[in-house]
Design brief:
By secondary structure, the chain is α/β, with parallel strands linked by helices. It folds into 2 domains: about 1-100 and about 300-340, Rossmann fold; about 100-290, NAD(P)-binding Rossmann-like Domain (Rossmann fold, 3-Layer(aba) Sandwich), CATH 3.40.50. The protein is built from 12 helices and 12 strands. The strands form 2 sheets. Strands 2-1-3-4-5-12 form a 6-stranded mixed beta sheet. A 6-stranded parallel beta sheet has the order 7-6-8-9-10-11, with helices on both faces. Strand 6 (about 145-150), helix 6 and strand 7 form a beta-alpha-beta unit. Helix 4 (about 100-115) crosses helix 6 (about 155-165). The longest helix has 19 residues, at about 300-315. The radius of gyration is 21 Å and the shape is globular. The model has no long low-confidence stretch (mean pLDDT about 95). The structure holds 1,4-dihydronicotinamide adenine dinucleotide.
């Protein structure tokens, strides 16, 4: 029986993990707390830890987990910017779920876009109050508008297909453009200048951190709609707020926020929100915030649980090779196999 310490457990992800765990002889120790230096102790006696987007997996925590005999860190998400992959090398193996439902995220981005431009969130609240006035609810057609997609990976491409369905003109920027994909690539500057709507679908890296800041916003069209379902720190939230106050940014739809770690996923109603910036953004009539829920569909939850359990199993079974292992040296374990016919460690 493989024992897995499951940090930041939520009611919505436990059933699927219990189900797939039973099928693969794996026991989950569900912990409500996030993984931090103080809580790393709780993994004692386990073989693996399972973490989510807002758990901290820095060098000190990796060392602690290593001391406790943890052999594998299983991310139950795609992004791994919260893990010090380089430090883990040679100590603990790291696996992730590269794709669970790119449709879930792309469709959420589309839902946010439609909600924002057709003022559905306002209409919903009004009619519940039997207020049937249309004043202030004027939107705009998506048809014929230019959408700029930053990052044309799995999610970005599905979002592009959805936008094309609406008759929008799609332009894209990607550090590594996909040849032969039929996507019209432009430079980031051109994308910022030409887009009526900008949607972010690239990972958070040193290079992409705050890629949407005051300089980038300065280059955008007046009234631009900005969508972020990727990672909060892609946007400098203070610069975004300034752009909104200056009436430059027409609307912002944020599923992620740079400082979300201690706020999102929890019920904070009845509490005073200490994050003034987030409170100010939420107070804006043209900002919609969802709390990192783009992934949250039944299909995605099942895929996440199944892939995570398989990732952990494949490490403990047979040759220990797992297709979803992250290796800082080659990025992906397949490269280790292709080039060195073995894992890097
Ligand atoms: P992917 O790896 O398939 O695609 C990412 C794309 O970004 C690639 O085409 C890559 O070349 C491109 N890219 C890399 N560096 C770039 C740069 N500096 N500038 C522009 N493009 C760059 O990833 P996928 O599955 O499409 O996910 C995208 C992001 O969505 C993830 O990194 C993750 O942060 C976020 N995400 C958010 C979720 C949510 O619930 N809100 C759920 C799942 C993922």
């Amino acid at each position: 029986m493989i024992k897995v310490a499951f940090f930041d457990a939520k009611a919505y992800d436990m059933p699927s993990f219990k189900h797939y765990g039973r099928l693969h002889d794996m026991e989950f120790k569900f912990l409500e707390t996030k993984l931090t230096e103080d809580t790393a102790e709780l993994a004692n006696g386990c073989d693996a830890v399972c973490v989510f987007v807002n758990d901290t997996v820095n060098a000190a925590i990796i060392d602690k987990l290593h001391e406790h005999g943890i052999r594998i860190i299983a991310l139950r998400c795609a992004g791994y910017n919260n893990v010090d992959i380089r430090h883990a090398f040679g100590k603990i193996h790291v696996v992730h779920v590269p794709a669970y439902s790119p449709y879930a995220v792309a469709e959420h981005a589309a839902a946010l876009l439609l909600t924002s431009v057709r003022r559905i969130h306002k209409a919903y609240n009004r009619t519940r109050d039997f207020n049937f006035s249309l004043n202030g609810l004027t939107g705009f057609d998506l048809h014929g508008k230019t959408v700029g997609v930053v990052g044309t990976g799995k999610i970005g491409r599905i979002f592009i297909d959805i936008c094309r369905g609406f008759g929008m003109q799609v332009i894209a920027y990607d550090r590594f453009p996909a040849e032969g994909s039929g996507i019209t690539y432009v430079s980031l500057d051109e994308l910022l200048q030409q887009s009526d709507i900008i949607s972010l679908h690239c990972p958070l890296t040193d290079e992409t951190r705050h890629m949407i800041g005051s300089e980038a916003i300065g280059k955008m069209k007046k009234g631009v709609v900005i969508l972020n379902t990727s990672r909060g720190a892609l946007i400098d939230a203070e610069a975004l707020l300034e752009g909104i106050k200056a009436r430059k940014v027409g609307a912002a739809c944020l599923d992620v926020y740079e400082e979300e770690a201690d706020i999102f996923f929890e019920d904070r109603s009845g509490h005073i929100l200490n994050d003034e910036l987030l409170a100010r953004l939420i107070s804006m009539p043209n900002v919609i915030v969802t709390s990192h829920q783009a992934f949250l569909t039944e299909e995605a939850l099942n895929n996440i649980a199944e892939t995570t359990v398989n990732n952990i199993r494949s490490y403990f079974d047979g040759d220990g090779l797992c297709d979803n292992e992250l290796c800082y040296r080659c990025g992906k374990i397949e490269q280790c196999r292709k080039e060195r016919k073995q894992k890097c460690f």
